[in-house]
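Model it.
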Amino acid sequence: MSQSTLDDEELFTEAASEMRDDVEESLAAARAELPDAADIWDVEADNTLGVLNSLRTALELGEAKDNLRDAKKWYTMGTEADAFDDAEDLAEEIAAVEDLLADIETASEQVGELASTIPQLKSALEETEADPEADAEAAEA
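Modeled.
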């Protein structure tokens, strides 16, 4: 085997190792951007709308999506180049973080919908409470 070939193999091995490190670092960065469980569970506010707004803030993802994208990019490059001896663990981690981000985004959307509905509901209930005729008509129906 020529010296050039040996150097190429060493360079490829080194590059593969760096790619794996990049994937792992990006995944760790994505996980670090996820909300803390305590922040979404222990929310303090004076009213329901305050709780929902605090929860929506706690569910913000920061740079998690960008970090996951970087992890997927390096993972794809590495698998296409057949650079990883065993990439199954990386694929599982990427899928787990991706699923968690999707769940958080769904929860955030639901909280957002509630936060926009609650004030309208409160106003409608206040109007009903202030209109005794509406109460009488509802009782007759």
